[in-house]
Amino acid sequence: MLILALDAALARCSVALMRDGVVLAERRQEAGRGHASLLPPMVEAVLVEAGVAAAALTAVAAVVGPGGFTGIRTALALAEGLALGAGIPVVAVTTGEALAEAVPAEQREGREVWTAVDTKRGRVVLERFAAAPPFGSLVALGEPEAMDEAALPRPPGPVAVAGDAALAVAARLASRGANTLLAGPRLPEAAAVARVAARRLAGEIPPLAAQPMYVEPPAVRQP
Asked: Could you tell me if 195 and 134 lie in one domain?
């Protein structure tokens, strides 16, 4: 299985090419903006480095959100273009799935994994994943939810928190007496996106529509 994975949902662009769980090539660049100009040459560089043509891919995976409007649209549009040309599927991955997949096994053992994304509007988007085995199935405990930090629910047991809002969320939960571990990573990694996509293609986790997942409406003003 040869998967090209793209992510530009938060403050990083990343691309990885993975064959049967082994990363053949990858690129990443921290970027608060400019995703549309950064991502295409990164994809080209990864394919050239690995010596792989787009037509040889099994699927293209993209993070569909939650996250920034422009970055999500950029990654998804590029994935759809590549997939259409190669006649292969686009596999959608949520930001939380990518973050949870990258949490080290020793940090998630016996803990739910909560991923927290900063909406930049004083709120966070929370995705929660079950601690019960098999963790590898990424059992989601409901849909992504946007909420104020003050409205965060109390975990039923130990929890590991990842994402760009993890520090604030972990501190808030700890202040309420929750058994909280600040886990990595803070931003999605394309290699983890590819691993989630492989699970989805194998039927280990439910299918997900390849369309933007914003949770909250884009921050635009009406004229």
From this structure: no
Q: Which two tokens stand for residue 55?
A: 């037509």
Are residues 106 and 172 located together in one domain of the fold?
yes
Predicted local confidence at residue 181, as pLDDT: 95
pTM score of the predicted model: 0.93
Q: Which residue ranges of the chain lie beneath pLDDT 50?
A: 135, 220-223
Query: Residues with Cβ < 8 Å from 1, sequence gap 6 or more?
Result: 19, 20, 58, 59, 198, 201
Q: What is the CA radius of gyration of the chain?
A: 17
Q: CB neighbours of 4 closer than 8 A, spacing ≥ 6?
A: 15, 16, 17, 43, 46, 47, 54, 57, 59, 60, 61, 82, 194
Structural domain includes residue 149? yes
Domain boundaries, position 77: 2-95+188-201
> Phi and psi for 31 in degrees, rounded to 5?
-160, 115
- Given the structure tokens 């590549």, which residue do they identify? 82
Whether residue 142 is found in the same domain as residue 75: no
Structural contact between residues 179 and 109, judged by C-beta atoms closer than 8 angstroms: no
Give the model's pLDDT for residue 132: 62
Q: Note the pLDDT of residue 139.
A: 87
